[in-house]
Amino acid sequence: xxxxxxxxxxxxxxxxxxxxxxxxxxxxxxxxxxxxxxxxxxxxxxxxxxxxxxxxxxxxxxxxxxxxxxxxxxxxxxxxxxxxxxxxxxxxxxxxxxxxxxxxxxxxxxxxxxxxxxxxxxxxxxxxxxxxxxxxxxxxxxxxxxxxxxxxxxxxxxxxxxxxxxxxxxxxxxxxxxxxxxxxxxxxxxxxxxxxx
Length: 197
Known about the structure:
Elements: H1 5-14, E1 19-25, H2 31-45, H3 52-69, E2 74-81, E3 84-91, H4 109-117, E4 120-125, E5 131-138, E6 162-163, E7 172-173
Helix pairs in contact: 2-3, 3-4
């Protein structure tokens, strides 16, 4: 409940929307690698590179479990919202997912890895057949440091280097615009046009 429609709309607009990316995969031995590559690109795009190290084995194990146990196409989703990264894998197997996975019993090393690296994880059957396996990890963006410009000490400012040649023209700065030729004559300045009357 809000005091006015304006305050309700303002509250909705300032609430950040979750970022979500999807990937559809076939049940192939390369599916775990494809999901890791997809997740790495996504997290780098979202400036969450520090989360790749812990999220990579989690997504790999979730995809491997789904491809081995279900043998159907799978949908991988990666969502980030307010410091929480949710990885989920959905399969389309008609058998009940509760028989294949047991989050409380932790059967096998795969779900042990997921449990050790994630804040929470679980398995839910979908209404249209299939199973959704999910895990939530902590993933915060690094704070952008505001760097102040360093003050340059007065003795660090260098003057333009000077060079000399066989004629002893050592007084010429390196970037001199107009200076003497080898014959010792000065280069004439271009004439300026007289203003039109």
